[in-house]
Amino acid sequence: MNTNRPLILISNDDGFFSKGLSELIKFLRPIGELVVVAPDSARSGYSSAMTTNIPIHYQLVNREVGVTIYKCSGTPTDCIKLAMHTILDRKPDLVIGGINHGDNSAVNVHYSGTMGVVIEGALKGIPSIGYSITTHDLNVEFGACGPYIQQITRMVLEKGLPALTCLNVNFPTTPSFKGVRICEQSKGQWVNEWETITRKGGSTHYWLTGNFEDSEPNNEKSDHWALANGYVAITPVTVDVTAYSLIDELKTWFK
Asked: pTM to 2 decimals?
């Protein structure tokens, strides 16, 4: 492994075979030495879940100059933990998740396996970035994303990020972008989340579906607005979830 180039650890939640991951590798090859440890099947919606009930394993998929790819039987978070424990010979300079098929704006950051990758990197003290695009189309074209991914990645390598923070970067599904907006997380929630399915014989099952209902659709500071209007949305995310504004109030409860 070339120790003169930045070491970038990559994972995702769509699986090691996804087009988004392949495109991300293509964009990042000029920037650093890449080690990919990604799930062996899709793990969307796994957030920061870890595998605790069964052992996990990993297997080499491909090795060539500058890029080594492994598949792992665990979750996206497992992939980062295992890579740090077993696979890598030094601490990576960056952890990157993506490119995810499906946006991770708004509350999706809490559910996303891609952001689970990034949050785990931040918890381990490594500058970390998640990249996503606002479509689940497996054949989407990622070409417009490339220059932005390279610029953002290089800037984070150069400038770093504060402790316990990471970047959530989302791309609109458009042939080109109007530019970059630095955003806050949209407020809202998923509604109509379950479709009821009645099987032959009368048994009932439920399929997770739904749509996101933005409570502030005209908030031009939000990531959801930026994406809807053709901008790349960059949201800084902190993994310290302490509600500092409530601490003093809670202290008065127990005097």
From this structure: 0.94
Contacts of 174 (CB under 8 A, 6+ apart): 144, 230
Peptide bond into 80 cis (omega under 30): no
Phi then psi for 127, rounded to 5 degrees? -55, 135
Domain 7-185+217-242 has CATH 3.40.1210.10: yes
pLDDT per position in the chain (255 positions), as tens? Answer: 667 899 999 999 999 999 999 999 999 999 999 999 999 998 988 899 999 999 999 999 999 999 999 999 999 999 999 999 999 999 999 999 999 999 999 899 999 999 999 999 999 999 999 999 999 998 899 999 999 999 999 999 999 999 999 999 999 999 999 999 999 999 888 877 788 888 887 889 988 887 887 778 888 999 999 999 999 999 999 999 999 999 999 999 998
